[in-house]
Amino acid sequence: MSKIMFEETEGIPIKDVPYFGQDRWLSPLNFMEEVTGKHLANRRVAVHDVTLRDGEQTPGVAWKEDERVFLAQALDEIGIPRIEVGMPIISEDIRRATKRLTSMSLKAEIEPLARAHFDDINICLDCGVKSIGIEICLNPYVLRYAMDMTFEAALERIVKTIDYARQNGMKTNFHGWDSGRTTLDYLRRAYSRIIKEARPDAITVYDTFGDVTPMAVLFLFRKLKEWFPETSFEFHTHNDFGFSTGSSLAAVLGGADCVHCSFNGLGERTGNTPTEEIVTALELLYGIKTGVKLSALKRVSLLVQEISKVKVAPNKPIVGDRIFEVESGLVVDIIMKFRGLGVQCYFGNFLPDTVGARPQNIVLGKGAGKANIQHYLEKHGKNLKKDEVDDLTQEIKNVGRLKKANITEEEFLIMVEKIRQR
Length: 422
Hints:
Layout: E1 20-21, E2 24-25, H1 33-36, E3 46-49, H2 65-77, E4 82-84, H3 92-102, E5 109-111, E6 113-115, H4 118-126, E7 131-137, H5 140-145, H6 151-167, E8 171-177, H7 184-197, E9 202-207, H8 214-227, E10 233-237, H9 244-254, E11 258-261, H10 275-285, H11 297-308, E12 325-326, H12 329-340, E13 361-362, H13 370-379, H14 386-403, H15 409-420
Parallel strand pairs: 3-4, 3-11, 4-5, 6-7, 7-8, 8-9, 9-10, 10-11, 12-13
Antiparallel strand pairs: 1-2
Helix pairs in contact: 2-3, 2-11, 8-9, 9-10, 14-15
């Protein structure tokens, strides 16, 4: 009998396409030119990792000097091109860590964040950095009622501090935080003057409170690139409504040259766009190169968890411990049938080793079916009659519900022997 082959069905291509292969099975809709536009061809997007700065603003998280250096080295090793190391003005240990990192000749750009104050910039200069993020609020209500400052005064400070940093040989990135809670007209006026008078090398658009929807982000960046085509724009957002990764993708589709992110989504309140999510999404869903080694994402996520003492949920996208576990008997049956056709990716968008995770694991529990049982019988070289398999399947379902947990392999083998002795 000839072997059944996995062939094209109903006109959905599966050969020489970016959404299907040995290591992935993704939606063809993502790659439609009507969705992505022509500008995504051969595009690269920079990654600005803020784990060491915004990530440290997670309540209870505090990096020691050696930890900051160690994590920065780990980020550099996996290809993160720019690392926001912290705010040197805050403490001596951040200054020491920054100096150590700038002397290591890392591939990554070490960029501290500074307020629009000369003292902040002088300290960064003393640390030996070649680029700097200079921040001040852009929300005129915060400027007026919390900082006792007019926009004119803020603009004057922005121009003077950026000019000072540029005169001292540093590349400058303007961070205007809380710019998301303003209007399109205001942002056009603000950015127009900042670009003309301050001339920063890049401008980071801040959705500080994560309330700009992905659709609005896409619209905003398309407008910014239309108005200021020669300016490099970046995007920084938080996850307050749960769509930070989607918003960051939208920014890229709109023309953003760089996205800001943090491993495991560490950051204030709900955290920042998770580094592991945005780089995987860019690489796999749009074919956009980031230069980040995807197969090391799980390892670095674990490092950040250990040092920060903040654990991620077991179902956390990309790096959760249990996202590649399968319990449903129906799904296991389908997985096995597709494996027989040489297709490894059915229940999942990509193979676990793509992001450095353990292989897909079929588990036994309340939702197990005969396919799960057969998998473990074959694994341990056991044979049961059909009625015995039926009995074992039902017992595993019952015990799984009582335990509210999966059945271990040791428990499985004990159950097999009990079934045999009946």
